[in-house]
Amino acid sequence: MAQSSIEWTELTWNPVTGCTKVSHGCKFCYAEIMSRRLQAMGLEKYKNGFNVTIHPESLDEPYKWNKSKVVFVNSMSDLFHPDVPIGFIQQVFKVMRENPQHVFQVLTKRTDLLLEYDNASLLEWSENIWMGTSVEDERVKNRIDTLRKTKAATKFLSCEPLIGPLPDMNLSGIHWVIVGGESGFNPRPMKPEWVIDIKKQCDIARVPFFFKQWGGRNKKKSGRTLMDKTWNGLPEMPDAYAGV
């Protein structure tokens, strides 16, 4: 568990680390860069670098948090990577269900495998498990339709890094949309008109909209203001969540 600087969450929890690239949004993966840095620092959890590694010892952590938290699950991996055993995914889901006072945000690019497991009744959901997918440009819009077919109570999109326009999205059954530009040493630019169009689509569909950042090499300098406002839309919190 670690406090997070990610604007739309409070903590990160990584029962799995490591991943492999699956689409254009992965090109400058921050988790890959960070994991190698942590490996160089000698952290035991990252001794395998960015190779997919499960961490059963991390499963107890959510039981120890005193207050309700909003938690990004596997910020350093993808829970639905094919190298993660379904038995371990089920253990992660069990931990999340047994801690209804927290909100767990799970984000995947591998919606096909997610839906395969869900259709096989291998996943048991609770209202505090939010399921999301990354949609960085039109080439992966199909992930939205796949996510919509799952039994997750709250479904969200992370359009980050937004590297192309996303016109005419079907937001039916989607409960939250996050948009952000790419950061790092060589970020691909995000055009304002792409962001504004997504905001308009959210307004029409009455979906909460969260603008995370413009990105670039200096996130603080580029800021997160869109049309002279800061947009911090969130889905409805589950009843058991008692955060401020």
Relevant terms:
244 residues, alpha/beta, two-stranded antiparallel ribbon, 23% helix, 17% strand
Give the secondary structure arrangement, pairings included.
Layout: E1 2-3, E2 11-13, E3 16-17, H1 30-40, E4 53-54, E5 70-73, H2 86-97, E6 103-108, H3 111-119, E7 129-134, H4 142-148, E8 154-159, E9 176-180, H5 192-205, E10 209-213, H6 219-222
Parallel strand pairs: 2-5, 5-6, 6-7, 7-8, 8-9, 9-10
Antiparallel strand pairs: 1-2, 3-4
Task: Give your account of this protein's structure.
- The protein has 244 residues and is of the alpha/beta class.
- The protein has one domain (2-14, 61-222).
- The chain has six helices and ten strands.
- It has helices at residues 30-40, 86-97, 111-119, 142-148, 192-205, 219-222, and strands spanning 2-3, 11-13, 16-17, 53-54, 70-73, 103-108, 129-134, 154-159, 176-180, 209-213.
- The strands form two sheets. The protein has an eight-stranded mixed β-sheet. A two-stranded antiparallel sheet has the order 3-4.
- α3 (111-119) links the parallel β6 and β7 (129-134).
- It is globular and about 45 Å long.
- The model has no long low-confidence stretch (mean pLDDT 94).
